[in-house]
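User: Okay, second chain of the day. Same drill as before: sequence in, structure tokens out.
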Amino acid sequence: MALRSAPLLLLVLVAVALRESCFGASSHSMKYFFTSISEPSQGPPYFVTVGFVDGQAIDHYDSNSRRMKPRVPWMEKVGKGDPQYWDRNTQRARANEETFRADLETLRSHYNQSEGLHTWQRMLGCELRRDGSKGGLMQYGYDGRTFLTFDKETLTWVAPDPQAQNTQRKWDGLPGLNQYLKAYLEEECFDWIKKYLSYGNETLLRTEPPVVTMSSRTEVEDGMETHVCRVHGFYPREIDASWTRDGEVWLQDTFRGFLAPNADGTYHYWISVQIDPKERGRYRCHVEHDGLQDPLDLELKDPTYSKSNLWLIIIGCAVAALVLLCVIAGIVVFFKRRQDGYRAASRSNQAIEQPPPSPSGESQHEEGGEERGSTFF
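Assistant: Same drill. Structure tokens below.
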């Protein structure tokens, strides 16, 4: 079980990397990530699907459980209202798993790759932004590079990879497909957001104000001061935190942390600034959030330590990045050493070249963005 669970951690890392930054984030969003990871000589591909609403994982399927399951308590309400909900989505996820497996073999053939670790991914979703505008995305990636992206404004597929151009031409030539995808990304996807918000309103529509703390230190080398403003425990994730000087946003000599989730579903964030101590009174940490009645403007405190906080921040970021790289490398090595004794079955090399099925009839995107039976190949 541990061996087959390793790629899930890799998917989570990828999914986190794909999330929006804290600025310009959507008010409400739904995204689904489909990933198949394969090492031909070490066993069958590992497949996983994870759905997110407002950055929170809501359901999950993988090759171990072979069942679509809820990831948050409020998603269980969906199954109570529709007893066949999870069975239908399980069957669709299994069909996607088989199709992704065939797609990986076809892609290896296109790229003349006989062995090695390879990934085939799809991301789709939509977002309703704070200003009322809408966005939608459908994208495929192979080995971490973009393979195909759907442009719903021009109703065409974009193929930055020459190996994808044949598929691009066939999909663009299929009557009705691109119009259907545009309708899904601009209409049906938002119907699902509304449905999920109705089930998870106590969690997804709550507001929790941030707790803001300040710390400061004097730099040993030059006497400059580094001040850190930390914002804790807020929800929703959209927040505006910045340094101001004389009431204006100040970007010089500033660092920003990553907006990251806490175990309880809230978020935390930090920003730092390096200043001349003679100008300390001109600076404020400015924070705006839906959980606050009024914006906060916190004054800078006198330094309490003599060590360089800026270098600590830089070193901390470097160590975190190194740990992340080691984790990913360990996952890859761990996965490549699996000994399942799998003999790859022969499949047609036409999966990617075949045009996608017609979107007419029943919706191919049902129950939280899951597609009926296959990818669009």
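Residues 1-26, 305-310, 331-377 have pLDDT under 50 and may be disordered.

User: Thanks, on to the next one.
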